[in-house]
Amino acid sequence: MATSDTKTTRQKVEAGLPRRRRKEFTFKLLGMFATAIGIVFLGLFFASLIAEGTSAFKQTFLKLDIELSEDVLAPGGELDLAYADFDGLVRTALRAEIPEASGRQDRRELYRIVSVGAAYQLRDLIAQNPDLMGTIQSLWVPASSNVDMLIKGNIDANIEEALRPLSDKQIGWVRQLQDKGRLESRFNRALFTNGDSREPELAGIKGAVMGSVYMLLVTMVLSFPIGVAAAIYLEEFAPRNRWSDLIEVNINNLAAVPSIVFGLLGLAVFINWAALPRSAPLVGGLVLTLLTLPVIIIASRAAIKAVPPSIREAALGLGASQTQVVFHHVLPLALPGMLTGAIIGMSRALGESAPLLMIGMVAFIVDVPGSLTDPATALPVQIFLWADSPERAFAERTSAAIIVLLGFLLVMNLTAVILRKRMERRW
Amino acid sequence: MTETSTDKPVPPAAEPQAEPVVEAAVLHEVPERVTELGGATVGNTRCENPFMVAEDVNVYYGDNHAIQNVSLEIGKKEVIALIGPSGCGKSTFLRCLNRMNDTIETARVTGNITLDGKDIYRSEQDPVALRARVGMVFQKPNPFPKSIYDNVAYGPRIHGLAADRAELDNIVHTSLERAGLINEVKDRLDEPGTSLSGGQQQRLCIARTIAVNPEVILMDEPCSALDPIATARIEDLMDELCEDYAIVIVTHSMQQAARVSRRVAYFHLGLLVEVDETDRIFTNPQHKLTEDYITGRIG
To answer: Is the CB of residue A316 less than 8 Å away from at least one CB of chain B?
Structure first.
């Protein structure tokens, strides 16, 4: 190589080195900075969620000695669970605990300390075990959500009385009960065993979780086989022409369509035209199927494309038919990728709320759904509903529900990773 | 070159030349080398005992005319080597012989190829059945990600060649034995085929091919990914296999062509330039291009 000046090639290379090193360093630094920002925001997100939400897993309970008097429960000698005055029993016990609340106004305020759930708890107890009638039972019943908030420090007792949900008297009684050891913070089972409720202390996510489970079942059963079959056909059998190009473009577009549009489609087709019930997990599952299908098809096609052509050729060269090539060789190798795509699509479906609003799954539903056609709601919609509720106690429950939802998502994505690692075969 | 059939989809057996060839063998005895490209194939495209006969084969990939008017006879139980520089169409021609080109959507084949007197591109010919008769070994060893046993048993299984497990065991065992692999793998038949070394994998692929009991074996540069020792083993194997099968091998190694083949066909830019007995090609090539190629001046 002819060099015009005195510098040798080596000198030129060395002269450029510091600049190259500087560039490399800058790029690494930028990358580290970007990663750090991501981690910081993720950390903030989790920290605020956990700080806000963990208190919802505890609930304040009140210990009352309740006389399950036969005179009150079965005045005519016949016990009728629907009409028996369980509320009265709770109130009597409460009055016995705080004797100084004597006037009508005082008593009314006193009764607000305990949750209406106390009466349901008594009813369930008697229904299970009628022999307890006539005995005195020492029971832990849920305190009202305002008391719970006071104990958890979410209500400031020092601000003006009219501005807080608990009066001075109520706060005094709560402190009195606290001193007597009658108040205790216990695990909030209701959060996991109850459906929705207007009373925060009785509200639970079981209805929403079951709704989500039913929906995802429908979605999985429909979208995985349909998506995989479509991907196999498009990738292995369909002729390449203008039609298949059109289909490909449309599938890619569908994956990017805002989810609420799928909700509108579901409303028009499944509810208005096919007359399926509103608010049903069946319809929700169908809508989410439409939503996840493009994702699954795209992931499955990518997985099929990733199968080395040499394997295909080997099988074809031995005289395997196209179908045999697909089912004996391509599918087993592509399955991990397909499953991963499906689970990622599923987790997207699990976190989806907008399309469900359109098909009536946003209704206030207390009962836990028992079938695909029962009215239900879904976990993200429940979060939306609770976040919309004015009661202070719903705020922590919103965060708790988000933690549960994130837990489900984590489990699903972990499953995807494990499945892929397990099934991946090397060639 | 006639290009009249470029537009319409090609009827596979367009030319009425399925009759047994009566024309005498053409032997271009020219004292001087032929130099022009595009004339008739030099040498002798015929052989005594033809099993596969290609007549005026043209292959198009879309607008690209990949091979032009190639006629060649492949004899029973002979090894014929296809040589030539990269992109000359030798692999394309090979893939016409078991219709592997069918899988390429833009590929179009005209002309006439017969196997044992029957056109393999006729409409009632099932390519699946054809590939069971004309097996193929690829450039890169490509065992299935399955056990060694399943690799060899796959062909017999899909074609239903074995009535029971014992018969299948027998086929697998014989095929591995014929491929010279049995001693190395007989204790590890359930290990994945991909756990073998490159040369062993290629012999596994050969075992897999002969397990279907084909009549012709096509080999597309079977040794290009292998070291010289593994190559020598495969070449020995080909010597044994040609007692039962016709073998068409594409190779970039002239030494390999000289060692294993009885006849050699030289391709250049999609044309079959010269075909002859291996000795003649390497000692007295008739065409200038052949001479340039084998002496290393091109390719």
So the answer is: yes
A387: its two tokens: 């976040």
Task: Say how many domains are in chain A.
Answer: 2
Q: Are residues A291 and A218 in the same domain?
A: yes
**Is there a domain that residue A195 lies in?**
no
CATH of the domain at B99: 3.40.50.300
Beta bridge partners of residue B247, listed in sequence order = B79, B217
Domain presence at residue A52: no
The Cα A314–Cα B141 span in angstroms is: 9
How many angstroms separate the CA atoms of A364 and B127, rounded? 62
pLDDT in tens, A192-216: 999 999 999 999 999 999 999 999 9
Is residue A307 packed enough to be buried (19+ CB in 10 Å), middle (13-18) or exposed (0-12)? buried
Is there a domain that residue B234 lies in? yes
- Picking from A188, A220, A244, the residue at the C-terminal end of a domain is A188
Task: Choose the mutation target among B91, B136, B144, B171 for the interface with A, i.e. most A CBs under 10 Å.
Answer: B144
Cβ–Cβ below 8 Å for A333 and B145 = yes
Whether A5 maps to a domain, the answer reads: no
Residue B109 above 70 pLDDT? yes
Q: Does residue A411 sit in the same domain as residue A285? A: yes
By residue range, what is the domain housing residue B288?
42-143+216-294
CA dihedral B29, B31, B35, B39 (to 10 degrees): -20
Residue B297 banded pLDDT, cuts 50, 70, 90? confident
Which range among A65-69, A272-276, B4-8 has the greatest average pLDDT?
A272-276
Task: Inspect the interface and report whether the beta carbons of A319 and B129 lie closer than 8 Å.
Answer: yes
Q: What is the ipTM of this complex?
A: 0.81
Distance from CA of A241 to the nearest CA of B (A): 10
Considering the domain architecture, whether residues A346 and A253 belong to the same structural domain is answered as yes
Query: Which residue range(s) make up the domain with A277?
Result: 206-423
In a domain? residue B262: yes
CATH for A247: 1.10.3720.10
Same domain, A270 and A311: yes
For residue B135, give how far its alpha carbon lies from the nearest alpha carbon of chain A (Å): 6
Which chain B residues have any C-beta within 8 angstroms of a chain A C-beta?
Answer: 98, 100, 103, 105, 128-132, 135-138, 140, 142-145, 154-155, 158-159, 194, 205, 208-209, 212
Which residue of A235, A236, A244, A318 to mutate against B (max B Cβ within 10 Å)?
A: A318
Domain identity same for A306 and A416? yes
Q: Is residue A193 part of a domain?
A: no
pLDDT digits (tens, 9 = 90+) for A150-165: 999 888 888 888 888 8
DSSP structure class, residue A103: S
| pLDDT for B299 | 57
- Evaluate whether residue B269 is within a structural domain: yes
Q: Does residue B12 belong to any structural domain of this protein?
A: no
* pLDDT greater than 50 at residue A79: yes
- Chain A residues in contact with B204 by the CB 8 A cut-off are none
Number of folded domains in chain B?
1
Degrees, nearest 5: CA angle A382-A384-A388: 115
Euclidean distance between CA atoms A384 and A373, whole angstroms: 22
